[in-house]
Design goal:
By secondary structure, the chain is α+β, with helices and mostly antiparallel strands. About 30% of the residues lie in helices and about 25% in strands. It contains 2 helices and 12 strands; from the N terminus they run H-H-E-E-E-E-E-E-E-E-E-E-E-E. The strands form 2 sheets. Strands 1, 2, 3, 4, 9, 10, 11 and 12 form an 8-stranded antiparallel β-sheet that branches. The protein is rod-shaped, with a radius of gyration of 35 Å. The chain starts with a helix and ends with a strand.
């Protein structure tokens, strides 16, 4: 019996020796654990970077380059209903530029016709004069006096701008007291680019 027990004991010890991992196996497992740790760090870093980039993009889109969707046809033929455009909010706006501005919990899009201190006059045929000079308007396809209840000639108040839609017969704008002239703090930005539909992709003039 003693010999049998000794034999079994030696077999168990030999089996244990066979089951012990080699140096190579231990090094491999260590490398795998290190790889998983590095991978986790890289993954977390990548996700954090993407979140930061997304946050910056949202801030830029909201504050500096908002995206607007055109609603209605008051700016035809320059812009049409459903167009998607990019605006730039840099606080500088000139005569002839197309701007978006807040009005009654929405955003209207019109063209700047005159600025602070300018005199605006419009004859019965819809020809526009600024400071006595006829305004060159290649962006309109048809003239019209449109809806107008202000006294002409009209002087633009300080710190405001006089705006009109390009579709003069169908636009409610600074020609009426309903909209009036626009203050700078109401302006969303100058419209720069139409990117949808793709067939009309291009700068807004």
């Amino acid at each position: 019996m003693s010999k049998e027990k000794n034999g079994e004991s030696r077999k168990k010890q030999a089996k244990k020796k066979l089951e012990m991992p080699s140096i190579e196996m231990l090094e491999g497992e260590l490398k795998q654990a290190q790889y998983k740790t590095r991978y986790g760090r890289v993954l977390r870093s990548t996700i954090f970077s993407l979140l930061v980039v997304a946050a910056v993009a949202v801030i830029i889109a909201v504050l500096l380059m908002p995206v607007l969707q055109i609603s209605g046809n008051s700016m035809e033929d320059t812009l049409s209903d459903g167009d998607l455009v990019i605006a730039l909010n840099n606080g500088k706006f000139k005569t002839g530029e197309v701007i978006g501005f807040y009005f009654n919990n929405g955003i209207l899009v019109k063209r700047v016709i005159a600025t602070s201190g300018d005199w605006v006059d419009i004859d019965s045929e819809g020809t526009v004069y600024v400071n006595g000079v006829r305004l060159d308007e290649p962006y309109i396809s048809e003239k019209a006096l449109g809806e107008c209840n202000i006294t002409l000639p009209y002087q633009v108040p300080d710190g405001k701008c006089f705006v009109m839609g390009d579709h003069r017969a169908n636009s409610i704008d600074s020609r009426t007291t309903t909209v009036g002239c626009i203050t700078g703090d109401k302006i969303v930005g100058k419209l720069l680019l139409r990117f949808w539909p793709l067939s009309s992709f291009g700068l807004i003039r």
